[in-house]
Amino acid sequence: MTTTEPIELRAMKIVQLLEDTYPESRSTLIASNPFELLIATILSAQSTDAQVNKVTAYLFQKYRTVESFATVAIRQLESDIFTVGYYRQKARYIQKTCQMLIHNFSGKVPRTMKELLSLHGVGRKTANIVLTRAFGAVEGIAVDTHVFRICRRLELSLGQTPDKVEQDLMKILPQENWGIVNRLFITFGRNICKARNPSCDICPILSLCPFEKLDT
DNA sequence: AACTCGGGGCA
DNA sequence: TGCCCAGAGTT
After folding, report:
1. Does the CA dihedral A203-A207-A209-A212 come out positive or negative?
2. Hey, what domains does chain A have and what are their CATH numbers?
3. pLDDT by residue (tens digit) across A74-91?
């Protein structure tokens, strides 16, 4: 790699190459149903897509309104989502959030970071995903373990905390790219730039990466 | 800052 | 088997 190249230019090339590698990342950026996306995202913490998809398919067939989630017996909701991790907390999060949607937001998913964060069980990452994918209104970049690790390896940010890494990324990348960076990096992080034994031999951005396959 | 919830993936 | 994971609330 060339070390004199401005970091903004290298970051732009990285995003471009990852978009080429994962073309589906663009087409599915905007979700059709904000409420279902919100529930699916709450369910997705520490769980696989397969687990979440199975549960949501059943859930949205059984419960068709925000009110039905808000009023069902909590034990029933727990058993309906039994196959995902943290199912007891998530059942409470979902019910409380739906009650708050009805009480505070006329039954609609709010469109600002502040309002989303006021929902019980909705934190910064969930709010970011909903803002990005449901409304295309990005207010930041959710830095999870994948984004954090990849940013260090690519030397896009050597920040010690997720907040610091997010600040660096927001300076480096144009705002129009913020929404897609998460999905690109996470897909890339799961498939290639893994925490251990990264597949550098098949990496599409190897030429832009200073990482020497050391274990950090 | 550390702890807790929890089933599934992976070595 | 043991370790880790697209997280958030509580203490």
Report:
1. positive
2. 7-27+141-208 (1.10.1670.10), 34-135 (1.10.340.30)
3. 999 999 999 999 999 999
